[in-house]
Amino acid sequence: MPKRGLLGLLALLPLLLLALPAAAAAAAAAAVRGGCASHDFAAADAVGHIDIAGQITRRLAAPVIRADAPLLAAPRAGARQLGTLRFGQRVALHRRQGAFVEVKADQRAAGSLGWVHGDDLLCRVQPLVSRTTGADRRFLPRRPAHLLGSAPEPLHAMPSAAHRRCEPGSPGCTDLADVAVAYVHAADPARGRLLLVDRFLADEAAQILGWVSLSDGLLWETRLGLRPREDLVHDAASAPRPDLVGRPRPLCVHATPEAARRGEPCTLPVLGGARWFRTPLRMPVLRHIAGEPALWEVAVPAVGVGPGVAVDLPGAPGAILGARQPADAPRRLDIFLLIDGTAGMAPHLAALAGGPGRPGLAAALAAALASDPRLAGTEVRLGFRVYRRAADGAGGIGEGLALDGNCAPSAAEREAGIAAVGDGLRRLAEQRPPRGPRSPWTNLFMGLYQAVDDMSACAGRAKLLFVIGDGGYSAAEQAERGALGLAVEDVLAFLTLDFDPAVEPVLPVFLQVPSPAGAGAAAARSAFIAQGRAIAGGVLDHLAAARGGAPMIDTGRLVAALPPGADPAATGAALVARILGAVRDFGGRTTVADLPDLAADGPALAALAERLVQEGRQVPGLILPGPAAAPCARPDAGCHARPFAATATGYVLDDADAVADVWLSYDAFSEWRARLAPFRDTAARSVPGLARLILRQMPGAERGAADAAGTLAERLERGRGLPVAPGSPLRRIGPAALARAAGLEGADGDGDGAEGDAAGLSPCELTLLGHWLETRREIIDTVFAGRIPEIRERAEQPCGSARLAVPLTEITRSRAFPAAGMDFKHVLGGQTVYWIPEAYLP
Questions:
Q1: Which of 30, 200, 419, 778 has CB 3.0 to 4.6 Å from 38, enough for a Cys bridge?
Q2: 794: which strand partners?
Q3: Residue 441: exposed, middle, or buried by beta-carbon count in 10 A (0-12, 13-18, 19+)?
Q4: Checking DSSP bridges between strand 462-469 and strand 506-512, what pairing results, if any?
Q5: What is the DSSP letter of 637?
Q6: pLDDT digit string (tens) for 594-610?
Q7: Is it true that the peptide bond before 293 is cis, omega within 30 degrees of 0?
Q8: Per-residue CA distances from 271 to 265, 379, 608, 661, 830 (Å)
Q9: Could you tell me if 182 and 196 are in contact, meaning their C-beta atoms sit under 8 angstroms apart?
Q10: What is residue 572's three-state secondary structure?
Q11: What pLDDT was estimated at residue 808?
Q12: Is 50 exceeded by the pLDDT of residue 15?
């Protein structure tokens, strides 16, 4: 050693001798993992540097993580106190001595503020990492069950690990009610407390939320999040009703493992679909449970009801017409009937009017308003208008009863108004229809124009418009009469421009009744359905755009053709029942009895969840009434009689219905992409060259690879924090086997490498592994490009051995996401992350 180097070392020896006991004392005195007392500034993820004398070089200020942290005059316990530091205050680190840190107001300050115990400062910038999974530690606050429409009891993070109560509003006393997921940056094992930060990096922009107990929530220490697969739909076996075949089907989350394995009725349905690609949230996987069948244990924010009747849970379709109304507010609903009055409609007009032994629509509606809990509190006004052919005179507009300007009628006035409509329908049924040419086409669009005028007297009331007829509108027929024809766009303008969707949305429902066959009847009937779909779809898009979301229901629920029947009375009763059903669906409230049916109807469940999310709740699931339905901590508060929101723990079968996505930070995703980038045209490489490439791109360089123990997967996960797929061949091969295949010095085949290494790799197996890594590179590149790769794996083993078990993998195609705003990449907690299916991982 050069003399100067030796003298230099001797000169530093006293400092070294002093520093070693000081470091040992710091470690012994430190109680907080992530605090500054024992922070390793030499770690790869550390921010800053500490020299041998304890001097700290770090630009990033450190937050104080204890309320009223003592500021001392010297680096020892019991030293004179100069003052205190408040929770969350940022200070610059200057020196560390033992367990104490000297701090300054900022790096440029000439003097220091004093000394602080290192456990009172946060030095860790990134979250703590699970020692078992290697994943960032995250925390899911367990929201106390609370009634919908009311504020939950606050769940507060505390301003120090020792606090058990705090003053709301004070620094560090943070209400976690609106926090979906937080990051664990420090832990006090002795007290069982965790320090939460609102984002991945605890930089100047981060909010230090405070300390919580493990009992305050769920610790999420896996990289996995569960979602239903995007194409999950009902088939004939799963659909409870024939009309649900082919419609989205929810994934079932059960309350207990036993219920999941026995296939008991679903108590917590979670809807699938492509909507999951819009959000950075998944159902956090708490653990995987082996067995037959295997299960996922997940956390699910949800809404639910107890066994009592709940009349204030907003139904999915009803949410359209009552979207801005509080749950306990009366629903003000205008119902308007636009009725085809041509000759073929006579039996249907009679059904609407009613007669001896068969109540008409007005009487049936009055009875439902008085007795149906779904319509309790709904204030209804009723009106009607008749339309016919233009050739029938008056532009095809006939009799009617418009809704007047009495916008807040009394109960008696509302009842009288409904009765007046009943009288008007009876008079209409007794009339002879106008004579004239029997064209199957009607002036439907002009009728809609008149209906809009008839409904427009009162703002602030939701409007449900029923169009009842058989034939559609023909612009050509209008032109033959020298009249100006109308287009669908004109009708949409009538129905949207003059009505505020926030307070008086108009929802059209088209009901086509059976009619006699005749010349041109088929074309006119087809036009009625097609025009109804175009108009209803346009209105739904308009309402969705006003809300900033997707349409809440399918257009098919607003357009229907009633099947013909041999009995006109039965057909008429079906028409009245269909109208009343739509009134309940779109203008009423959902009861507990309706919820199992709602759970089976994917679009309906989606609409309910979307409404609740718009109200600020992260709600992927709906807890249905059942033996173990409601995790309601306060039954005295009425949770078992009304809807509540809570965080539930549930169990999902590990089958094809559930997709396990892996959480990857942007850095981890980029590192995987860089490691896989050279794997191109692997079939053209020699076997030794391919082995050297794999060694070079995986952790553990060629030097010393022959003696390296463990598998490539272990080195990737433990050494680099990169997740590896559960069935990956990287879990069955180590560097030693690759070194032998590469012909590296020292690779004699006698070492103790990974399982299977002693026998070495055949050229066939190595070639297959190279192709598999090349396919993984293509998959990751496709994800990076914002497209969905569709992959196929085959179980054949062309090498004649299943020892390495490299699957034959290929990308069959890649496709775009269904809609804008969908991607595997998201931003959560200030961090760019990727949620990719576990099957995509190397």
A1: 30
A2: 808
A3: buried
A4: parallel
A5: G
A6: 444 444 444 444 454 44
A7: yes
A8: 16, 32, 11, 16, 27
A9: yes
A10: helix
A11: 77
A12: no
Mean of the pLDDT values across residues 642-662? 78
- pLDDT mean over 349-369: 89
Three-class HEC string of 32-54: CECECCCCCCCCCCCCCEECCCC
The pLDDT of residue 744: 65
Q: Give which of 622, 560, 621, 550 is closest to 585, Cα–Cα.
A: 560
Closest CA to 390 of 343, 470, 446, 432: 446
- Res 518: pLDDT: 66
Percent of the chain with pLDDT over 70: 74
Task: Kindly tell me if the per-residue pLDDT of 309 is higher than 50.
Answer: no
DSSP string over 530-561: HHHHHHHHHHHHHHHHHHTS--SS-GGGTEEE
Backbone angles phi and psi of 301, in degrees to 5: -65, 130
Q: Among all chains, which residue has been given the structure tokens 């907003």?
A: 314
β pairing state of 808-815 and 788-794:
antiparallel
628 phi, psi to nearest 5 deg: -120, 40
Q: Which residue has the tokens 């041509």?
A: 342
E-assigned strand segments in 459-569 = 462-469, 506-512, 559-561
The residues pairing with 340 across neighbouring beta strands, listed in sequence order, are 387
682, 771 contact by CB (below 8 A): yes
**pLDDT tier, 708 (very low <50, low <70, confident <90, very high otherwise):** low
Out of 298-307, 589-598, 709-718, pick the least confident: 589-598
Question: Residue 199 carries which side chain, given as an amino acid letter?
Answer: R
Confidence of residue 26 (pLDDT cuts 50, 70, 90): very low
Contact (Cβ atoms closer than 8 angstroms) between residue 486 and residue 473: yes
The tokens for 333 are 């609903």
- Relative to beta strand 56-57, strand 69-72 is unpaired
Sign of CA dihedral 550, 553, 556, 558: negative
Selection from 738, 823, 757 nearest residue 785 by Cα? 823
Q: What is the pLDDT of residue 19?
A: 36
Q: What is the C-alpha to C-alpha distance for residues 667 and 725, in angstroms, rounded to an integer?
A: 18
* Lowest mean per-residue pLDDT among 182-191, 288-297, 735-744, 817-826: 735-744
* One-letter amino acid for residue 102 of the chain: E
pTM for this model (two decimals): 0.59
The CA distance from 718 to 575, in Å, is 67
DSSP sequence for 320-370? HHTTTS-TTSPEEEEEEEEEE-SGGGHHHHHHHH-BTTB--HHHHHHHHHH
Residue type, 691: A
Distance, in Å, from the CA atom of 153 to the CA atom of 166, rounded to the nearest integer, reads 14
- Note the pLDDT of residue 803: 60
Rounded distance between C-alpha atoms, residue 139 and residue 220, angstroms: 6
pLDDT class of 87 with cuts at 50, 70, 90: very high
Which band of pLDDT confidence, cut at 50, 70 and 90, is reported for residue 6? very low
The type of residue at 59 is R
Count CB-CB contacts under 10 A for residue 800.
8
Strand ordering across the sheet containing 193-197: 208-213, 193-197, 182-188, 138-141, 217-220
Token digits of residue 55: 């001097």
Q: Decide: helix, strand or coil at residue 523.
A: helix
What is the model's pLDDT at position 146? 52
Distance CA 270, CA 826 (A): 21
| String of DSSP letters for 235-278 | -TTT-SSGGGTTSB-EEEEBSSHHHHHHTPPPSEEEE-SGGGGG
pLDDT at 605: 45
Tokens coding 564: 């013909």
Q: In the chain, what percentage of residues exceed pLDDT 90?
A: 25
Crossing angle for the helix pair 666-676 and 763-784, nearest 10 degrees? 140
Q: Report the interhelical angle of 687-697 vs 735-742 (nearest 10°).
A: 140
